Amino acid sequence: MFPGRVVGPRAGRPERHNGGDDPVHQPRLPPGRPTGRRAELLAAAVEVVADAGLRGLTHRAVDARAGLPEGTCSAYLRTRGALLVALAEYVGRALEERVEALGDDLAGCAGDPVAVSAAVTELTVGWVREPSLVRAQAELSLEAARQPELMEVFERWRDGLLRTVRQLGERAGRPKPQDDAVVIVAAVEGLLVTAVRLPAAGREPFLRGAVPLLVHALHEAR
Length: 222
Known about the structure:
By secondary structure, the chain is mainly alpha-helical. It is 69% helix and 0% strand. Helix 1 crosses helix 6, helix 4 (80-106) crosses helix 6 and helix 5 (113-128) packs antiparallel against helix 9.
């Protein structure tokens, strides 16, 4: 999944270049999807957190998972706090992209519970096909309750999901679309965490049964 070990001019330290992926010359990336070595490190960090939780997230563990020389991660993200925030941004952006796609899919089907449940089901099924991402999101969400800088990152993608669901409720004429959105998003988060605890073969069938139940129950409660 990740490239093999890179040999630099000094043992255990990443080779430096003038620009490009050089952590010294690389400017701070704007919000969005990271690229190059930084993306490689954050993808490895997702796997570390998924396997070992946040207690296992260290610069050394990320280097080892990525197959890179020790010291590479700390060259890009010097403190554990910086690593946590960058990881939260990476995971949050991946989720946000899927939420944006859901909004496009739901634009014309507000009054059709079958179409809505199909779109939301595909969203959740797509997420559990990347179980490490869901596990990392769950771990970081709990940590965000204790660290305001992480909460700010996660609120961005969660607000996008709330907005998409609220707009759907508004188009369907729901009396309290914001309240509905909060309940639906919380329920979806719970379904995702439940799904990734199941054996891999059971995750998709579980969601294909549970999500339509949720959507239709809300539709009938009008």
